[in-house]
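User: Please predict the structure of the protein below. I'd like the answer in structure-token form so I can feed it into my own downstream comparison script.

Assistant: Understood. Taking the following sequence of 421 residues as input:
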Amino acid sequence: MKHIILSTCFFLLYISNIACGQLSDLSARPDLNLKVYINCNWCYQDFLRTQITWVDFVQDQFVSEVDLTITSLVTGSGGTEFLLQFAGKRELSGMTDTLSLTTNAINTDNEIRESLVRKVKLGLVRYAACGKAGDCLDINSNSAQDSLDVGIGSNPMEDPWNAWVFRVSANGNVGAQKSIQSGSFNSSISVSQVKETHKLLLNMSARYNERRFDYGDFTERFTLRSQSLNATYVHSLSDHWSAGVFASAERSDFSNYDLFQNTSAAVEYNVFPYREAQTKSLTMVYRVGFSYYDFQEETIFNKKIDRIPAHSFLLSTTFTKDWGQLSSGAEVASFLNDFAKNHLFFWCNYSVRIFKGLSANSSVNFSVQRDQINIRLNGASQEEVLLQQQELQTDFEFSAFMGLSYRFGSIYNNVVNPRFD
């Protein structure tokens, strides 16, 4: 009898543990959690999944309850502006929100991803509150203003640098083995001021590259040097119009320039307001300018010095939607004193979700060139061709990438396991 009573107690205890376990896991059941699909190229997705555990991040857009599209643009200070677009589906259809997050150039990756997690959480709260997941959420604040119960915010202090940003960088690398030694050095200085009304960019850079070969009877050293200076000023005319002036100077062993100088002016029209540039843009740019050439060696046109006016027209478009991303454009340019010297450049990049787990992506670049006036008259040696030491004459350039991918299986991807990564 004693053994029967003990067995019965253990059995009841076992059953109660199972029931309590099922009850405590109720809030973590996938059918109760908000299903979220993220569409982005670079947004710390693994970190989002590990930090936001009260939603289910799904791989299949067709089973999600909220679609979150995250895009980013580089700011004038070298930081990043993230745009978060939330779109409800199914029972949440019709609910849409847009949030933005701006980080600066000195923020670490951890600071950026923590801020992004906080912003994503804020955006998802409204959708969770309308579903079953809202029952497990508590809202708290660590703001000093909230603790003081003031109820208002405060404006940041005035920028003592007036939006001016300075950056100096230098890097180099070396490599060696018995027959081949190589080294390169790069340095740059940049100054910028970016405001809503205008942006001013100044950049100066220098590059040095050297390769040495000692193999059998072949011993040779090849060097490439280049220096460049670029200045850009763009003025905001309206929500759709901009105007700019540009100046540049360059010396390049590869391109046969002892000195290349260019000054130009341009006007740009964006069919969509500039504030929507993160999700869609359709721009047209017309540029006209004047160039001065002082070549290192005489060219195939028997020129050592040349002065040429030129103009160009550029049409480009970019769209970021739930179905994917598309970017394409075309540029046509010619010399004003000789229209036969011209070039045409076309590009198209897209990444599209066709249905469920099937995605397609492609990149195509094509150009027709009839304006290479800097090609050396004496040509290049076989070694210089193989090592790409000189710009070579060509009528066209083409490159392409195409791919398909299909994913099937579990739609849930909340777990991140970094072991042996």
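That's the full token string. Helices lie at 2-24, 45-51, 109-129, 144-147, 382-386.
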